[in-house]
Design brief:
Elements lengths: L1 H4 L6 H7 L4 H27 L5 H35 L5 H12 L1 H11 L9 H27 L7 H4 L9
Length: 174
């Protein structure tokens, strides 16, 4: 009975990263985060130096294009293989689980925006500095969205339903 009190349920976000080690962690976390951090760090350099060209700008540009395309693929894959089936079967583990996965997938908006900006699909008529402001804003939005996903992803999803979970065999407290 004491052992049941300490059973923790993982969010689907955390479970995705934990299974098939180390591949899921690399594919779904390391690659996008390394690219996003490369963009964030190079963005700081570019904003500080006001450099609009050079090798740091090229790294920033290509990382933006690559992460936008890559994360779009991740989003489509997870919508088809996880979100759809979980929604159809009622397999979500509560609101914390939905928030963690939802915010993770919401990362496609700023990352896709970065790729579209770098490819000249959007804001093409804007000045280089106006595009840089948009770029920095998209980086900031991604960092917020990703951190919300990580924070909720690390929570025990049963915390949101602690009262409703009692007696249901889901690790609720007796």
């Amino acid at each position: 009975m004491l052992r049941e009190c300490f059973v923790m349920v993982m969010t689907h976000y955390m479970e995705l990263l934990a299974v098939n080690q180390p591949w899921n962690l690399i594919l779904y976390m390391a690659i996008p985060v390394i690219l996003a951090e490369t963009i964030a760090v190079s963005e700081l350099y570019l904003l500080y130096t006001r450099a609009l060209d050079g090798w740091v700008r090229q790294i920033n540009r290509w990382a933006g294009i690559l992460v936008g395309i890559y994360f779009s693929g991740i989003t489509v894959t997870l919508l088809v293989t996880a979100v759809g089936p979980l929604s159809a079967s009622g397999g979500w583990r509560g609101p914390i689980d939905v928030i963690a996965v939802g915010f993770y997938l919401l990362g496609v908006v700023p990352l896709g925006g970065l790729a579209l900006l770098e490819l000249g699909v959007v804001a093409r008529e804007r000045s280089p500095w106006e595009r840089m402001k948009i770029h920095a804003g998209l980086v900031a939005v991604f960092l917020v969205v990703a951190h919300v996903a990580m924070i909720f992803g690390m929570l025990d999803p049963s915390l949101a339903w602690a009262g409703a979970m009692e007696g249901m065999g889901h690790g609720g407290h007796n």
